[in-house]
Amino acid sequence: MLIRYKKTYEKIAMGLLSYMPGEHSVKALQETIQKYETEDDWQLYLWKKGEDFIGLLGIEIDDDTYTLHHLSVNPSFRGEGIGKAIVERIQEQFPDKECLSTDETDDFLKRFISKEGGAD
Ligand SMILES: CC(C)(COP(=O)(O)OP(=O)(O)OC[C@H]1O[C@@H](n2cnc3c(N)ncnc32)[C@H](O)[C@@H]1OP(=O)(O)O)[C@@H](O)C(=O)NCCC(=O)NCCS
Question: What is the 3-state secondary structure (H, E, C) of 29-80?
């Protein structure tokens, strides 16, 4: 289940974000979280399975597109189709928008989306 981020989830969100390349320092993680908390067009979601938050997705919304900036799954749950399910769920939420990728999310997205991405 995809759940919109709120402040009480900050620690678990930072933990999941830390699996992204380039998000290893506490400072970088705090800056990223801050962006999602303060900028309306940046939206962060957590994937909940049972009682546990095991995945994270962060997007930047635009008029006709949204860009997938962050996607991560707890290593204990990888390879079970959760990354794919998270991407599919957000596409259902924004059916009229094209999903774009960044350099970091492009390879994974290309597995599931036929359209060319590449926002950066
Ligand atoms: C990328 C990630 C979210 C995939 O989550 P997941 O739940 O394991 O994904 P799925 O089970 O739906 O898909 C797994 C498949 O994606 C592949 N895959 C994993 N990371 C990939 C990447 N960066 N690029 C392309 N393919 C990737 C796996 O090898 C696997 O392939 P297989 O099915 O042929 O064995 C997870 O590996 C992760 O959190 N990685 C660290 C964060 C990261 O690097 N994010 C940037 C990329 S989105």
Answer: HHHHHHHHHHCCCEEEEEEEECCEEEEEEEEEECCCEEEEEEEEECHHHCCC
Cβ neighbors of 30 (< 8 A, separation 6 or more) are: 14
Determine the distance separating the centroid of ligand 1 and the alpha carbon of 73, expressed in angstroms.
8
Query: What domains lie within the chain, and their CATH numbers?
Result: 2-110 (3.40.630.30)
Closest CA to 20 of 77, 79, 104: 104
DSSP category for residue 96: T
Mean of the pLDDT values across residues 55-77? 98
Which residue has its alpha carbon closest to ligand 1 atom 31?
Answer: 79
Report the pLDDT value the prediction gives residue 116, as an integer from 0 to 100. Answer: 45
Closest atom of ligand 1 to 80 CA is 11
Q: Do 83 and 71 meet the contact criterion of CB atoms below 8 Å apart?
A: yes
Pocket test for ligand 1, best of 18, 49, 90, 108 (most atoms within 8 A of CB): 108
